[in-house]
Amino acid sequence: MAVSIDLPATQRAIVANDQLDYCIRDDVPLPPLLPDCVIIKTEYVGLNPVDTKMVGPFVKPGASYGIDASGTIVAMGAEVVAAGRLHLGDRIAGAAEGMEGLRPQSGAFAEYVSVDGGMALQMPDGMSFAEGAGAGLRIATASMALFHSLGLPAERLRTALDPKTQEDNSDIETTAAANTVLVYGGATSTGTMAIQLLKRCGMRVITTCSPRNFDLVRSYGADDCFDYRSPTCGADIRASTGNALEYALDCITEESTMKICYQALGRCGGKYVGLEPYPETADSRRTVAPDWILATWMRGLPISWPEPFGTQGKPEAREFARNFFPYIHPLFSAGQLKTHPIREEPDGFEGLLDGVALIRKGQINGQKLVYRTADRRVGTAIQAAA
User: Fold this and answer.
1) Average pLDDT of the chain?
2) Of 133, 146, 162, 300, which sits 20 to 30 A from 337 (CA to CA)?
3) What are phi and psi of 235, to 5 degrees?
4) Looking at residue 323, what DSSP letter applies?
5) Residue 178 predicted with pLDDT over 50
6) Cross-strand pairs, 292
7) What distance in Å separates the CA atoms of residue 205 and residue 223, rounded to the nearest whole number?
8) Neighbours of 32 (CB within 10 A)
9) Among 275, 292, 309, which residue terminates a domain?
């Protein structure tokens, strides 16, 4: 049986209007309570690069905006109640389904947000809601890329935390010679999470970023850092890995970044995964198997975004999520996965719309913009079709 506290009929949220603008409304219906989901009352929301790309055919009039949120559980579907892991009042970080026309109340930039119960992350006591607002999508994306697409051994995460003693065992070597993985764009929010997950699996992590972020990525566990602007970046990585690198995660996924990843992979080839459709012109080696992922696929539901993002549902991605997140929950709730550096901005939803422009202009580097939903300012709007 589902459980819930008394909830209002409507809420404040950022939605798309008929002119394909994003606007703030106070009469938006709450999301329905689905059997496998929880509803959280949001405290903070976080901006992601994908939010800045919701333009043109991605904009669905009437749909709510955004993916990342943190807050407190106020309702639980019957399947979540039966599972027994979550409870009313739990502090949660999670990823929603922003700008989805098939489920228009599913976005995160709202006072109440629906989150998949199996992927809802219980925040550790020392984590603030502001920090939690940067966790959901980066964990889902990094996990799907590394352990679903690249096929790395997720079971190694079991050695990262002993569930009986809650002692950190992440420094234990799981193999005599741990595998090496390239994380291109290590200073991104997905990059810093990927680095941590790989280190928890006992792997060596090579990463690229600006030299000003070398200390940042090393603080998350990166073993070696390379300047992505160097004309010999790919060759230098290939030399440092003995011409034997097999795995590359590209957190930027542009033609230039894919070329560097392909240059870095060893002579026998390997696997490459991007975070959006990769440019086929850069798929230059037959011995490299390229792929790309979208974290939203893990819900297993149809997606109405334009091709190739849209889908009738990916049950294999849903099955992966169900099997994988039990590895993540004890790590996250015990505070063993660090959040990305956050930059708390003022003015709530109004300020968030300004933040979209900051990201589009390339003015944010190595930080995640987060906003407190209770904050207010005189309303504004941003062109979604720009």
Assistant:
1) 93
2) 300
3) -65, -40
4) H
5) no
6) 274
7) 5
8) 12
9) 292
